[in-house]
Amino acid sequence: MSALRIDVADLLTHPGARRPLHVEAAVADLGGTAARVVEPVAVDLVLERVPDGLVARGSVHAHWDAQCSTCLQDLNGELELSVAELYETSPAEGETYPIENGHMIDLELLVRDAVLLELPLAPNCRSVEGRECAPVIPPGVSFDELFEDEPGDAPMDPRWAALSELEL
What we know:
alpha+beta; two-stranded antiparallel ribbon; 8 strands
């Protein structure tokens, strides 16, 4: 059983009851196309019984790793997210989370929703670490030199000849 599945039977039987909760657990495949969470996620919440179900308020803390989308240097960062979500026995799809089996909540759904929305989509050195990217072109080499053909160039394809006559 996942450490993020929490038994809340004690809270459900006492209206107005509150319980602090601290859980650290790894969440499998938690990442987007560019960045991914590699360490356990820390969840600090206060669970409170309300008439509609349970409210989970607190924070989610995660460390992530990625590569710069410009220079491919390794990057890492931290997310500290505030959450406040409602768990109900009859959840509204996309709005609240379910209380399962009458007394269990699964915080993994909450963690996934919160973290995946905040992970950087295209991380780069400047936005993440405030530094310039490593040069992509080696020092002393111009951009044009990177794309020069060797001596004895092949003749131009006649289909492109009309483009070389354009004056821009």
